[in-house]
Amino acid sequence: MKKTQRRPTAFPLDELNVIDADYVPGVGAPAVLIPDADAFAPTTAAPGATEVVVPRKRRWLRLFTAALGGLVALAIGLAIDNLIR
Fold first, then answer.
1. How far is CA 43 from CA 18, 38, 67, in A?
2. Which of 39, 32, 37, 38 has the alpha carbon at shortest distance from 18?
3. Distance (Å, rounded) from C-alpha 61 to C-alpha 57?
């Protein structure tokens, strides 16, 4: 026999992680989800800590390197083509 399909329902996901302090699971109770600490939460800096300076990106150098690589590949291809002919 085919079971009748249940209509989809919506529920907020925040309620899955909420546990009352006096909750005691009974026999056959579903598993309890305990939220972990937020790994991406901002932390306070230690006193006397200095901020890390991120080096500036060299966009033109990357563009020049890519163009130079393309020209070298083209030169190698033309040299091989000239060698074959």
1. 24, 11, 42
2. 32
3. 9
Query: Cβ distance 56 to 43 under 8 Å?
Result: no
**Phi, psi for residue 41 in degrees, rounded to 5:** -70, 140
- Specify the pTM: 0.37
Q: What does the block give as tokens for 40?
A: 């991406």
**Model confidence pLDDT, tens digit, residues 39-65:** 787 777 777 777 778 888 788 999 999
Say which residues have a Cβ less than 8 Å from residue 32's Cβ, sequence separation at least 6: 19, 23, 25
Q: Give the CA radius of gyration of the chain.
A: 31
Helix residue ranges, H only, 1-85: 59-84
